[in-house]
Design a protein that fits this description.
Chain C: This is ABC transporter ATP-binding protein. The complex is a heterotrimer of chains A (310), B (326) and C (341). Chain A has 11 helices and no strands. With 310 residues, chain A is an all-alpha fold. The longest helix of chain A is centred in the middle third of the chain and has 37 residues, at 100-136. Chain B is built from 12 helices and 12 strands. In chain B, the strands form 2 sheets. In chain B, strands 6-7-8-3-9-10-12-11 form an 8-stranded mixed sheet, sandwiched between helices. Chain B has a 4-stranded antiparallel sheet with strand order 2-1-4-5, covered by helices on one side. Classes of the chains: A mainly alpha (310), B alpha/beta (326), C alpha/beta (341).
């Protein structure tokens, strides 16, 4: 310390100060809950944010797009068939003269609905089976795991084909058909997480306090598996959309005149050489949905991953 | 309490020939705890030390029913804890509590401190609404925290604060007996002293009985009235804490004591150390006879053949070693 | 003796979501040939960051050296390129870590891991390196080294792994060995083995050791000099006896006073330090320990104390050393246990 500085110090600076009671225990950072913290991390991920914006736009158009011109999705008008630029048919018309703007957004609606419904069913069955299997372990786990293995060993195309031969392919039957084997990955994720978490000390603490199975599952385990569950759902949705598109391609999907993105791509594919625009719009939207969900899923995984927590 | 009058005290917990084996893959059996006998007196602190894998944590978890027993019995206030049912079990869950090792894993990250501490209150329906909040804030103050901490989440706290929240959770059901399973091992030295002093204070105020499990012999000796030393699933020696340090009987205790670093350069440089050769054998296939014989500097022929008896070699000083056969 | 390593006013920060964590905020110390320097402090005090910065092992981003110099035999490692560092790491400065399991490659035999370094740094032939590896394993007390050479890390026990790590680290005869909590993950009896081994090896090889630890017991056993860190700064530094028998900083008093001593009767009183270390995203303006310090004065909260010399080897950064400060005696718990017989 320089001599000058020493002179400037006044003696009263050297009076002891009593430390405030509890001051050393004070937490200075603002209170941050789990979701807020996750959102802060998610926000800083440009890819994930772009995905979220694209998704929001697509959902917006899927809902409000059909209100933006005066056509509907099933009225034929053969006088204007296969026109790329005509009036306010923004996406042109198809071989029957139906408005492709209408059909594309109705199709997106159908695709998203099927996927959401399928993911929701996966979620319910997967979380239930996964948590029972992981939590109780032992014999219960053995039996459930064998069932899962059997289900998983049957090619799901066969299961879905059989289902759709029995039921009329509509939104609900397709979603149900997709879920018959679709819940398996979700159950596996949940089972693995629960098995890991059930030996955590906070669960042991709850057990020593006399907590029952229900309390441990719903208060301690499932809330802590929410992160991986949400991530699994975000990845299940695009795969359901893709599978539905595939079903439409082989003629097992949504029946005309209703359309889904998959059936539109299939229709467009038939005219690819002459009218490429008919394939382009639905295919582009399909790709965007897939890409966006994957980006969002990656972002969520990073944001919800506890190892990233600081 | 003084260490000599323990024999007049009421036995609160009695462990007899406790065995806990785990079946691992391939039909192999880990003999984590193999025939341990000891009593805990009301109001005392019994320390349990040993190196990793010696079975000390398994004992703690078996006592509080997180594990079942393979053989032997655990009696808490005269009742076998593994046969409790219904009302008696609920009462037991309140009377015996546990403090855990890892301050980061022992609090549910998705619950607020309020809900964490109130868990026992909720399970046993002890209070609700405003009364519940009041009780939690009271408990927070007991462990040196305050009201403003109640609505925060565990990750906002430091290790020492989290450990104190864990203590408050255990205290919420007004237990008589607390098993502290390595409660300070994950904490920094200065914070360790905070937690240990808090535990001592609580014991004095509420008449708690502790089973204090740790691998840090200096801290165990500091907090405990009596100390038990474990090696590979067996209790090898049990005595008053000063007696154990001044007059260790078992060769393993001797080696352990001499290996503990002492934060004083003069002592550290002059004292004689017994360095044990090799590592602890596997509890899957432990050595025959005395389990310590493979590393014991004083091993004899009989050590490989016979399991040493657990006996009171000197008043209130138990040991299992062939050196002390009559 | 001459200075092997000089760290001058080192600042290291990490960028996080919450802001810049100033993990090391002006650390200065030096290391002489053949000595053992212990850096002690609690978790988060910056001791490990300092040692990893010397090796330039801090991932960037998020970590970066804000300012300061790390002079190793006159070269500034803080400005060295990755290529230059590759020549220094392992050969000139080696490091062993707390958890040997994560620092050994699980898919390579232990022998291959020793030989790799020897071939690269010492330009040995495979056969020479193999012989040297066997010699090293024998040196660190691993029985039947010839057969151990072909084994994988998971076939070693915890203590053996740490021995193997030391063998790898010392194989190229480094001038400095940085040991980051080398015994923390080990049981006491194994810990005693490793400390003995390190002392013995230092006698044989003359390697200077930087020991990073929180365990004052280990420090008392092995160190020549001690650097005490708190919240990213060095608060006290001195010879082993100066730190243990004439500690000047209240934090050092706290550290010494909060450790129970096995050799004292159980009526010993522990002196805990209240509270927790400060948040290094917004460290306090003055002395970082002021909020937890029983002797804090007004000035402590406003101005960072400067280093004061107690002796030519003993420095402390505390306002209590200022002539205008009140005279304060260290609590008995901190120095009381050290009375001579």
């Amino acid at each position: 310390m320089s001599a000058n500085a020493a002179k400037e110090l006044s003696p009263e600076l050297f009076e002891p100060v009593a430390s405030e009671a509890g001051a050393e225990e004070r937490i200075l950072r603002e209170r941050v809950g789990f979701w807020k913290d996750a959102w802060r991390r998610f926000r800083t991920n440009p890819g994930a944010m772009a995905g979220l914006i694209v998704l929001a736009l697509i959902v917006f158009f899927a809902i409000f797009g059909p209100m933006m011109n005066k056509y509907d999705d099933h009225t034929n008008n053969l006088t204007i068939s296969n026109q790329e630029h005509i009036g306010d048919h923004y996406f042109g018309t198809d071989n029957l003269g139906r408005d492709l703007w209408q059909r594309t957004w109705h199709g997106a609606q159908v695709s998203l609905l099927i996927a959401l419904l399928a993911a929701l069913i996966d979620l319910c069955i997967g979380v239930t089976i996964g948590s029972i299997s992981g939590y109780f372990g032992g014999r219960v786990d053995d039996i459930l795991q064998r069932i899962i293995e059997i289900l998983y060993s049957i090619p799901n195309l066969i299961v879905v084909t059989l289902m759709l031969l029995v039921f009329d392919p509509g939104i609900v039957p397709i979603a149900v058909a997709l879920s018959i084997t679709g819940w398996v990955p979700m159950a596996r994720v949940v089972r693995a997480q629960i098995m890991k978490l059930k030996s955590q000390e906070y669960v042991l603490a709850a057990r020593t306090l006399g907590a029952g199975h229900r309390r441990i599952l719903f208060k301690h385990l499932i809330p802590n598996v929410m992160g991986p569950i949400i991530v699994a759902v975000t990845f299940a949705i695009p795969s359901a959309i893709f599978f539905e598109a595939f079903l439409s391609m082989i003629g097992l999907g949504i029946r005309p005149p209703q359309a889904s993105l998959g059936s539109l791509v299939f229709d467009g594919y038939n005219y690819l050489q002459i009218y490429p625009y008919q394939l382009f719009y639905p295919a582009a939207i399909l790709c965007l949905i897939m890409l966006a969900f994957n980006l969002v899923g990656d972002g969520l995984r990073d944001a919800l991953d506890p190892r990233m927590r600081k | 309490m003084s260490k000599t009058e323990t024999q007049d005290k009421e036995v609160i917990l009695s462990v007899k020939n406790l065995k806990k084996h785990f079946v691992v893959g391939g039909g192999q059996v880990v003999q984590a705890v193999d025939g341990v006998t000891f009593d805990v007196y009301r109001g005392e602190t019994l320390g349990l030390v040993g190196e990793s894998g010696c079975g000390k944590s398994t004992i703690g978890r078996t006592l509080i029913r997180l594990y079942g027993v393979t053989d032997g019995s655990v009696e808490f206030k005269g009742k076998n804890v593994h046969e409790l049912k219904g009302q008696e079990l609920r009462a037991f869950n309140r009377q015996m509590q546990m403090i855990f090792q890892d301050p980061y894993a022992s609090l549910n990250p998705r619950m607020t401190v309020m809900d964490i501490i109130a868990e026992g209150i909720d399970i046993h329906g002890l209070a609700s609404g405003e009364e519940r909040r009041k009780r939690v804030i009271e408990l927070l103050k007991v462990v040196g925290l305050n009201e403003e901490h109640a609505d925060r989440f565990p990750h906002e706290f430091s290790g020492g604060q989290r450990q104190r929240i864990g203590i408050a959770r255990a205290l919420a059901v007004e237990p008589e007996f607390i098993i502290a399973d390595e409660p300070i091992s994950a904490l920094d030295v200065s914070i360790q002293a905070q937690v240990v002093n808090l535990m001592k204070k609580l014991q004095k105020e509420q008449g708690l009985t502790y089973l204090f499990i740790a691998h840090d012999l200096s801290m165990v000796k500091y907090i405990s009235d009596r100390v038990g030393v474990m090696y590979l699933g067996n209790l090898v020696e049990l005595a008053g804490s000063d007696e154990l340090y001044e007059n260790p009987l078992h060769p393993y205790t001797e080696a352990l004591l001499s290996a503990v670093p002492i934060p004083d350069p003069k002592t550290a440089k002059t004292r004689e150390r017994i360095i044990l050769e090799g590592d602890v054998p596997s509890p899957i296939n432990p050595p025959s006879g005395c389990r310590f014989r493979t590393r014991c500097p004083k091993a004899m022929e009989i050590c490989a053949k016979e399991i040493p008896q657990w006996k009171e070699a000197q008043p209130n000083h138990f040991v299992a070693c062939h050196l002390y056969n009559e | 003796m001459s200075k092997l390593l000089e760290v001058r006013d080192l600042h290291v920060s990490f960028k996080t979501y919450n802001g810049e964590v100033k993990a090391v905020r002006g650390v200065t110390f030096d290391l002489e040939k053949g000595e053992t320097l212990a850096i002690v402090g609690e978790s988060g005090c910056g001791k490990s960051v300092t040692s990893q910065t010397i090796m330039r092992l801090i991932p960037n981003p998020p970590g970066f050296i804000k300012e300061g110099e790390i002079l190793f035999e006159g070269d500034d490692l803080a400005k060295a390129t990755e290529k230059q560092m590759e020549k220094i790491r392992g050969k000139e400065i080696a490091m062993i870590f707390q958890d040997p399991m994560t620092s050994l490659n699980p898919t390579m035999t232990v022998g291959a891991q020793i030989i790799e370094g020897l071939v690269r740094h010492q330009k040995m032939s495979k056969a020479e390196a193999r012989n040297k590896a066997i010699e090293m394993l024998r040196l660190v007390g691993i029985p039947s080294p010839e057969s151990r050479l072909a084994q994988y890390p998971h076939q070693f026990s915890g203590g053996m792994r740490q021995r193997a790590m030391i063998a790898i680290a010392l194989a190229c005869q480094p001038k400095i060995l940085i040991a980051d909590e080398p015994t923390t993950a080990l049981d006491v009896t194994i810990q005693a083995q490793i400390i003995d081994l390190m002392k013995e090896l230092q006698k044989k090889t003359g390697t200077a050791i930087i020991l990073i630890t929180h365990d004052l017991g280990v420090v008392a056993d092995i160190a020549d000099r001690v650097v005490v860190m708190y919240a990213g700064i060095v608060i006290e530094t001195g010879k082993l006896d100066e730190i243990f028998y004439n500690p000047r900083h209240p934090y050092t008093w706290g550290l010494l006073g909060s450790m129970p001593r096995l050799d004292l009767r159980s009526d010993q009183k522990l002196l805990p330090i209240p509270g927790s270390p400060p948040d290094l995203i917004s460290p306090p303006k003055g002395c970082p320990f002021a909020a937890r310090c029983k002797y804090a004065m007004k000035i402590c909260k406003e101005q960072m104390p400067e280093r004061t010399d107690i002796s030519s080897t003993h420095q402390v950064a505390c306002w209590l050393e200022h002539p205008m400060a009140p005279d304060v005696k260290p609590p008995v718990a901190a120095v009381g246990g050290t009375k001579d017989e």
